[in-house]
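step=predict obj=N-acetyltransferase ECO1 n=321
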Amino acid sequence: MPSFFPEEEGDETPPTSSQSEPMEDKYSLSPFKSKLHPRKKSKSSTPKLQQMTLDLGQKMRIDCRKCGMSYDRTDTKDVQMHSRHHSAMMQGMEWCLRNPNKKGRLIGQHKLPKSSIDAYVAEQDVGSRKTSKDENEVQLWAFAIGKGQQDPSTFSVLQDVKNIMDSALGAVPIELGTSGERECQDKLIVAVWRDRVVGSALVGELPKSVDIYRISSESEKAVIIDTTDKAGWEKVPLAIHRIHVISILRRSGIASAMLDAALNDCVYGLDRQEVIRTIGQGSKANTTAFSQPTESGRLLAQRWIQEESGESNGVLVFQEA
């Protein structure tokens, strides 16, 4: 029967089957949950693109005249990358390898002339650094890079040194520890000064599967050398795959010092003078071959050869396989 009395506030009328609420809503702890917390519309996973720079036709990419790197000056990551590359090219890569005497050998030292030190200090922000009595001494370290001869952390540092050298020379990268079919006997020579790598050279044995050419300093014509017999190969005990010095310290004697140290260390039991006298027949030109040198590299080789005898018999050149 219909009720003639109005329902009191708070009374609940049992819902009919047609009005029954869903199970989850019926037993919800908060009957007003759906009103207080409406469902949020799903957002698109694609972020909105925002214009971070104002394009007024200005030049975004610039070329650094000193280090040669091209970078986008509006990109923070590009700017940071250029800063690291510029520092490595102009000041030298930071030498983070501690106790190098446990990983390699000190094979030479070189005294920098005062003019080179003054030029370096004027170019870099190192005026506040404390100086020592050995501030002009460059240490030359040699590291074996054959497979398994260095621990991973040391090998990573040497790989960074080699990568900087390849980048500066614009050379095709050579993977450290690989020498084709033969076991790798190559060494990486690192010139360290003020905890910076100011020069480096990749040296080793001459590959047996390449031809050697002699380039005369007068005619600049390449003449192939017959090296089919064993005696012919013994006349060229040292191969220079790469050699590089930072630009501000070139013509300071670092490159020649690395070549002398490499020649002094290339034949077991013989020092540099004995190698020149017995194998080179009195001339450096017969002891060392260079891998496809640039024009400046060829001039370096000629000056280094002439230091010993005053005469140049030409530069021996070979092509990487």
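step=describe
The domain at 93-120+135-318 is CATH 3.40.630.30 (Aminopeptidase).
step=end
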